[in-house]
Amino acid sequence: MNRRRFLQQSAAGILAANLASGQSAALIASIDKITLKHGRDGSGPSWFHPRPCLVPSKDGPVVFMTMQEIRGSDFFLPVHWMESRDLGRAWSEPQPVPSLGRVPTTDARGEEGVCDVVPQYHAKTGSVLAVGHNVFYKGPKFDRNQPARCPVYSVYKDGRWSERKRLIWDDPRGANIYTNNCGQREVLEDGSIAFVMSFGAQQTGRSAAGVRCSFDGETLAIQKVGREIKHAAGRGLLEPSLVRYRGKFYTTLRAEDNRGYVAASDDGLDFEEKQPWRWDDGTPLEMSTTQQHWLPHSEALHLVYTRKDASNVNVMRWRSPLFMAQVDLKTLRLIRDTERIVLPLEGDGVKAPDEVPLMGNFQTTNISPNESWVTDGGMLPKHGFKGDLLLGKIRWSRPNTLV
Predict the structure, then answer these.
(1) Alpha-carbon distances, residue 45 vs 49, 179, 372 (angstroms)
(2) Which one of 22, 39, 54, 307 is CB 3.0 to 4.6 Å from 46, fit for a cystine?
(3) pLDDT for 345-389, tens place per residue?
């Protein structure tokens, strides 16, 4: 073996060993916060749930984003969309999604809307599948007595949106609710779609399970549901996100016992026993009923999340700042030394928590080999839910070959 090949193989072996132990070299070159749209000062709408995806075109990738205006606690206006053809420097004006607005309920007791929408490009059909779930309003407020809820979706292709459709699951375990709201999904090589669903026959104690769906560009249909992941505290397991990384599936789950949970699976259907998110020394993270999302890079898998910190002890659900850290794939723990702040806390989270814009309804997106995004709508509940549309732009020190 010549010396050059020996050195290349040695370097590859060292890198593989480092990655296996979760101790890869720093991958993050910089993180910048950008305000895409102003709403906190009253100059525009307060956009919430901003979730982008990349759509290929003959002129280069298009960033396609859905979002909706927030006016109160769980009170959203119709879903809108906009796009950027220069990787986020300029954007089209937000336009409503015709099929994801509000419609009168069949019993005329209020209106049915859509929230928590996540768009995703589906290469096999050349379409964008936008999945959210239904939500009910009574007059100008969120209806606290929500009827049964389920996933709803619309498909965007060739400049047109399809009608609103429901994802059907005739299982009594989902009699009260079944949903993948705010969740990350995976499009598999055969065009099928994998995600994790939260469901329950009652308001409390929701379970979760892996799901495999077919999608033909028009209809999303459940084909398989995996083994049930149970959790008794509060409402149970909420807003699950799924990622496939190096041949294995991982889900992260919001919970209501001051923890978030993680589980792994070989097939994305049957998951191993869930465990709370912990630091690499075994100390559990304190998380308060807020979603987490994955950010994969070819050399490491990261989690983006909120947690309790000395800077935010009095902030509601510790929903600022947004953190990210690398996952040790052997232990499914976060490597404390890799933690970075993606979107910083603004204000004083100890003495003036009501003046701190809240985050936590966010999305992660790989935009290019050198750049990933975390988008969120920071808002102030005590000030009319006004807020800005925010972007945390992560630049990688090494190209991300997953893009």
Answers:
(1) 13, 27, 25
(2) 39
(3) 999 999 999 999 999 999 999 999 999 999 999 999 999 999 999
Q: Report the DSSP pairing between strands 141-142 and 293-297.
A: unpaired
Task: Please give the DSSP secondary-structure letter assigned to residue 218.
Answer: S
| pLDDT attached to residue 370 | 97
CA nearest 381: which of 39, 72, 75? 72
Distance of alpha carbon 54 from alpha carbon 372, whole angstroms: 11
- Distance, in Å, from the CA atom of 263 to the CA atom of 266, rounded to the nearest integer, reads 11
Confidence (pLDDT) at 139: 82
Question: How many whole angstroms separate alpha carbon 90 and alpha carbon 189?
Answer: 32
Which helix (H) or strand (E) segment is 80 a member of? strand 75-84
Strand (E) positions, 123-256?
A: 127-138, 141-142, 151-157, 160-161, 165-166, 177-179, 186-187, 193-200, 207-215, 220-225, 238-245, 248-254
Using alpha carbons, select from 118, 176, 116 the residue that is nearest to residue 150: 176
Q: Rounded CA gap, 280 and 244, in Å? A: 22
pTM here?
A: 0.93
Cα within 13 Å of Cα(180), Cβ side: 31
Tell me if residue 197 falls in helix, strand or coil.
strand
Place of tokens 């939500």: 135
10 touches 18 (CB < 8 A) = no
Q: Mean pLDDT by 10-residue block, N- to C-terminus, for the chain (403 residues)?
A: 37 41 69 97 96 96 98 95 97 98 87 97 98 93 92 97 98 98 98 98 94 98 98 97 98 98 98 98 98 98 98 98 98 98 98 98 98 97 97 98 94
Neighbouring C-alpha atoms within 13 Å toward the C-beta of 402: 20
First to last CA, the chain: 34
CA 198 to CA 207: how far, in whole Å? 6
Rg for the chain, CA atoms, rounded: 21
pLDDT digits (tens, 9 = 90+) for 35-67: 999 999 999 999 999 999 999 999 999 999 999
Count other C-beta atoms under 10 Å from residue 267's C-beta. Answer: 13
Q: Indicate the domain borders of the chain.
A: 72-166
How far CA 314 is from CA of 231, 317, 379, in Å, comes to: 27, 8, 16
Q: How far is CA 203 from each of CA 12, 149, 173, 232, 289, rounded to the nearest angstrom?
A: 51, 11, 12, 11, 15
